[in-house]
Design brief:
Layout (H helix, E strand, L loop, with lengths): L3 E2 L2 H11 L4 E6 L5 E6 L2 E6 L2 E9 L3 H9 L1 E6 L5 H9 L7 H5 L3 E3 L6 E3 L4 E12 L7 H7 L6 E13 L3
Antiparallel strand pairs: 1-10, 2-3, 2-6, 4-5, 5-10, 6-9, 7-8, 9-10
Length: about 170
């Protein structure tokens, strides 16, 4: 499939419409190891006068380790028929599984970052980390703590400057 540059507004609409079904966050280690994980939380907007995609990654995740090494990631918007691959990517660890191999998805070199894109996806956001924040319990409501952090496994919020957006129309 042909991958064209897209306006941020075109890509945003598609990302917001599909976030509840899960997006694929791809990362790579400094030695070239590649991984994908499913995300259901994310924010897209303008921060520090730059377009950013904020993703939340629990510190215990393999993806966290890889982003910490390279400060780069991609967010990939799956097609409607990719539900099983999205499910697998969210339920096994990249430390123990080659999720690209197990899902049949294809890792392709991105244009501007070391992290790969997922070829089968509709749209790709290439991001460079420009900031990060550690979620801390003292800053959250009791409801959020009970609902999202019953095991005290907090997230790092990565603010990725969007360097490139391309793909197909949704």
């Amino acid at each position: 499939m042909r991958k064209d540059e897209l306006s941020l507004s075109e890509a945003l609409k598609c990302a917001y419409e599909r976030l509840d079904n899960g997006l694929l966050l791809a990362s790579a280690g400094s030695d070239g190891r590649r991984n994908i994980m499913t995300i259901g939380w994310g924010l897209i907007g303008v921060l520090w006068r730059e377009p950013v995609f904020m993703v939340a990654v629990r510190d215990s995740r393999y993806t966290h380790e890889l982003i910490e090494e390279t400060n780069e990631f991609t967010v990939n918007i799956p097609r409607d028929d990719m539900g099983e691959a999205v499910n697998i990517s969210g339920n096994v660890s990249g430390r123990d599984h080659d999720k690209f191999k197990e899902t049949g998805l294809t890792a392709v070199d991105a244009k501007t970052v070391q992290a790969p894109i997922v070829s089968e996806c509709l749209i790709h956001f290439e991001c460079k980390v420009v900031g990060k924040t550690q979620v801390t319990p003292g800053k959250l409501s009791k409801e959020v703590l009970q609902d999202c952090y019953p095991r005290d496994d907090y997230h790092t919020l990565y603010y990725g400057k969007i360097l490139s957006v391309y793909g197909e129309q949704c």
